Amino acid sequence: MAEGRANGGLKANSVGLLGVLMQGIATIAPAFAVLSTFVFTVGLAGLAAPLAYLLAGVALLPLALSVNELSRVFPSAGGWYTWIARSLHPRAGFFAGWYMSLWLPLAPTLVFAYLASTVLTPCVAAEYGVHVPVWLWTVVGVGGVAWTAYRGVQVSERLLVITGSSELCIMLALAVTGFVHPGAGGFNFESFDPRRVPVGGSLFLAVVFSIFAYSGWEAVAPLAEESRDPKRTVPRALLGSVLVMIVFLVLTAWGYLIGIGTDDVGKIKSAVAFPVFELAKRVWGRFWVLGPLAMLNSALAASAAFFNAGTRTWYGMAQSGSLPRALAWVHPTRKTPDNAIHLMLACQSISALLVLSIKPELALPVWAFTLTFGLITMYVLASLGVIKLYAGARRAERKLWRHVVWPSLAIVSMLFLGYKSLVPLPDEGLRFAVYFFIGYSALGAAVLLFLKWSGRDAWLQRVSDGVEPPKS
Fold this sequence. Notes:
- The protein is an all-alpha fold.
- It has helices at about 1-5, 15-30, 30-45, 50-75, 80-85, 90-105, 105-130, 135-150, 155-180, 205-215, 230-260, 275-285, 290-320, 340-355, 360-390, 400-420, 430-455, 460-465.
- Mean pLDDT is about 80; it is low at about 1-5 and about 465-470.
């Protein structure tokens, strides 16, 4: 297995700025992000749902500005794992990879199953009288994405650019049409008034859940070793994906509420038919099917990005020795981390068990909240890493705003959101996500203790020094 790694590792200079930017945007899955979170966010924040998306984006901006500094110093396929390990502590970096492993490997099957059960299967049955099983959509979708992963990152890049661009255009066009043809209540700016949160709702919980809608911008990082000029490309793509998605999520959520009718916002949570698609039917007629097609595009692009980011994160962790070295093996000709892709495919079976045991429409919100707590933890660790790095080894380069103010703001905002989402505890369904996150974190700590007690701590020094393990 050392042969693959001896052939030069991952294929360098394969992806330009557009491809890396679309990696972040596609992982966020714009159409899927807004449509899968819209009803739930409106249920929490009511008419103020666009404000929740805006506040979540504003909370992420200091973080994006802060971690840009780490991406310039440590361009690596390990991404957040490497950044936090090198700037703060290797064990803290391990938790970044641990939380990414909760997210990326399980996402493709969950995304396709949710999309198939809530949109694709019902739409095809209603329009054409044909029942396409949820499992068939899922197997075909995940299988196609896996094929692009084995073919190489350039094939994935083309898929991301085509599908990502088309879904952005379709969903923005529907929002603009909603502005032009408003429902009951007409055009207004009430969506940005925090007083429009319904009794029993929670703007803070809506903001936390909206952070999940943004999740994916951090998946830009693992393409560092395959991108052109990664010290410039990755930071630009990190910040650019957040800025693009702030505009997209706020405009689309606002446009959909205007089009559905701000006087009817209370009916959205209990609506039998998907409200955004009902809007599309009203304003686009028979072309409403572009909405489900955009979600299918979104699922394809997001899953391709999940495969890219997840396998590269494992590759980076395996290079340092915190995961089995077999995951660092690269195919000699395609330059793809095939063993990591094999493991990614195997993880789809675990995700499938979740889908079989819990309905996708129930599993996705719980998984999303669990993941969001992991992301918040990862964001705090990265911000602490920036402060420590530029207070120590790179003190001579320290800038007040870049290396003190922005990371401090990121820490405060993330901790505040985390606190407000836990106090008081959410309802029974979402409360399970809190318990699962605690259990998953404890399991990660147990893995670290096992590595320590079994005398397998050599990876700590290798990560600190940025040295690969010896090749056998």
